[in-house]
Structure formats: C-alpha cells, structure tokens
Design goal:
InterPro entries: Nucleotide-bd_a/b_plait_sf, R3HC1/R3HCL. The chain is an alpha+beta fold. Helix content is 43%, strand content 15%.
Length: 145
C-alpha cells in the first residue's frame, strides 16, 4: 500500500478541512484522509507516485511518513480497511448513447443518428467495458454485504 502515508505530529486543532487545504494540490488527482486516532491520520492518494511526490515535498506544518514506518495502530487500520483504502482509478469515458435513446423513446421521437454512428458508439462502449479490470466491476468473487 505505497499510496498511503501517515500524517503525524500535527496541531491538535486540525480538522478534516485543514488536511484537505494542506493537500489541496493532490485533491484533483484523488486524495482522502482517514483518522486513526487524535494524533495520526492516514492520507490516501490516487497513486503511489502522488504519495511519493508528497513524501518528498517536506511540508513545514505536517510531518508525513510511509506506511511502512507508521505506528502500529495506523498499520492495523490500513490492513483492516484495505478494501476501502484502494486508490481511485480514472473514471471511464462516458457516453450519452443510452440517455439519448431513453429520452427519445420516452418522447416518442426517432433518434437522428445514422446506423454507422450508432454502431461505432456501441462498439466503443463495449470495448471500454472490456477494458475495465474485474476488481473495478465488483466481480472479484467475494460476497458483497
């Protein structure tokens, strides 16, 4: 879990918004925090590359270290919630194909799209579905509750 860092020895008055402001440059790529206790927070980045960049930036206000050097409590929390602490991947490109079809059918209108355009968009959607790893589709074989 190289995409997770531990934040420690921060001011006691710090709240979620303070961490989000401190790590604002990482929020666009995907950044979240999970509290371990009152003096330790897990910083979850979208990739190990982002986490490494943060680790090397040496913030004057916040001390950050890799999970391998974290406290026992942080390591336990990261292991316990490992399924929820996975980095977020890029969202697949969306298409208006289904929405257009549903709206046009509901209005009783014909879709003004040539068959070749429709087939091309449908093929593109099928290809993107095939490119999504099984773990992202939620079919990893585990029972969901």
């Amino acid at each position: 879990m190289k995409h997770i860092l531990e934040i420690y020895q921060f001011p006691s008055h710090f709240k979620n918004k303070d961490f989000m402001e401190a790590f604002d440059s990482y929020r666009q790529d995907g950044f979240d925090i999970k509290w371990v206790d009152s003096s330790h927070v897990l910083a979850i980045f979208s990739s190990s590359k982002s986490a490494w960049r943060c680790l090397k930036s040496n913030s004057a206000v916040l001390k950050v270290r890799p999970l391998s050097q974290a406290t026992r409590a942080s390591k336990v929390k990261a292991r316990r919630y490992s399924d929820f602490l996975q980095p977020s991947g890029p969202r697949p490109q969306t298409s208006a194909l289904t929405a257009n079809r549903l709206i046009m059918n509901a209005l009783g209108l014909r879709l003004n799209q040539s068959k070749s355009q429709y087939k091309a968009e449908l093929t593109k959607l099928k290809q993107e579905k095939m490119d999504i790893p099984l773990s992202e589709k939620g079919t990893s074989g585990e029972a969901s509750s």
